[in-house]
Specification:
- By secondary structure, the protein is α+β, with helices and mostly antiparallel strands.
- It has a single domain, classed as Aminopeptidase, CATH 3.40.630.
- The chain is built from 7 helices and 6 strands; from the N terminus they run H-E-E-H-H-H-E-E-E-H-H-E-H.
- The protein has a 6-stranded mixed β-sheet with strand order 1-2-3-4-5-6, with helices on both faces.
Length: about 200
């Protein structure tokens, strides 16, 4: 009887091994960058610094996007879903916690673009997986309406191109709405969807 139990347990263990191995492989492939890559925790540009978004930045981040709701709906999200006037403090904090968790998990990296003293957020920059094959990553960014009117959007985009090329391990990066027009990008995303995706 003991031999039967041992054999049964061994069979179960052997059967479970491929599943565990697949789970490990899936977890590894979910990360955007290799385990040995040192993700930038801070970057400096002319008149701004980038730091990871998280709970410590909830107030300046909230103030930035709530100051530019219509502008961001038109130039960034292209949707009335974000930002909108009804975003609560709890929702804002949950968003920051989610961004910090994704950063820690190395699946995507969201940065606040702050003034050098950290008192004000000028915009945000996101490095994430591309939904379109052929790109190692996708980079999106936004700036507040005041910063956009002052020309900072173009400045940040130029700087970001150099930063990504120099400090990140990607060979080909998509900049939707910039190097690739929104209509073209939307068509690429649609074409890349599997039949069961909305």
């Amino acid at each position: 009887m003991k031999h039967c139990i041992t054999s049964w347990a061994l069979a179960l263990a052997l059967a479970a091994m491929p599943v565990f191995a697949l789970a490990q492989e899936s977890a590894a492939s979910a990360t955007l960058v290799a385990a040995d890559f040192a993700v930038p925790e801070r970057a400096e540009g002319p008149g701004f610094v980038l730091v990871p978004l998280g709970p410590d930045l909830v107030e300046v981040d909230y103030a930035a996007y709530m100051s530019s709701i219509e502008h961001l709906q038109q130039t960034f999200s292209r949707s009335t879903g974000w930002p909108h006037p009804g975003i609560t403090a709890d929702e804002a904090m949950a968003d920051m916690e989610n961004e910090a968790a994704r950063f820690a998990a190395r699946t995507s990296f969201a940065y606040g673009v702050l003034t050098p003293d950290g008192a004000r957020e000028r915009g945000s920059l996101y490095v994430s997986r591309s939904p379109v094959p052929g790109y190692d990553a996708m980079v999106r960014m936004w700036v507040t309406k005041d910063e956009y009117d002052a020309g900072f959007d173009a400045e940040l985009y130029r700087w970001a191109q150099g930063w990504i090329a120099q400090d990140w391990p990607f060979a080909r990066v998509a900049f939707p709405g910039r190097a690739i027009g929104w209509d073209e990008w939307d068509a690429k995303v649609k074409a890349a969807r599997t039949p069961d995706q909305p």
